[in-house]
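tool_call predict_complex ligand=iron/sulfur cluster
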Amino acid sequence: MALKEEDVSGLKERATAILEILKKKYTSARVALKFSSPLEILVATILSAQCTDAKVNEVTSSLFKKYHTAKEYAQADLKTLEQEIRSTGFYRNKARYIKQSCGIIAEKFGSKVPYTMEELLQLPGVARKTANIVLSNAYGVVEGIAVDTHVRRVSQRLGLTKNKDPDKIEKDLMRLFPKEAWFPINYLVIELGRDVCVAGIPYCERCPLVKLCPLAFSFGQRGKKVNATEQSL
Ligand code: SF4
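tool_result ok
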């Protein structure tokens, strides 16, 4: 469902207040994945689907010592690569995406990770979230807001979107936050999502946004079952 036009100015005001509070609270919010090149952040972000950043960093600490170029990943033995990334979960799909994407990068993009949204979206396993993370962190190019599981959950709870689809959530957030906030808001919201607005029952009692949140204290008590609607957020 799209945000109603008449709601947008009020939502924008609340979004601005949310941004200011989060900037003060989480002063060191930044990408947690370790990387030293566009190729490394691309591979790390593909591996981060359904996996913690800490586990990805553990796996990439040895992976990045072995593979240095797109061609090396493209030519890797699939079964070997699968085992090397196995602990990140969904390893068969991830290994295939990395090999195929790197094959395209090597052949079509001169072994350089592309730096436009349009080109990045041509790579298997790369949707807007991954493309946004790669573009902003590797190239300083900000075309949107990376919507991961934390951003999705928290922005729904805060009433900043009614959508469930990440691309639609991203559009809603892009309308509410100024462009200069598109890069930091992702990491600020992730910090909030890890710190207090966790999946399940959030810690509203110590949330800095409690006065701005329509769902504050509506998730029941810890230790009791949450209802189906609350569970889905
Ligand atoms: S008040 Fe509660 S539900 Fe709202 S953002 Fe904070 S932790 Fe999440």
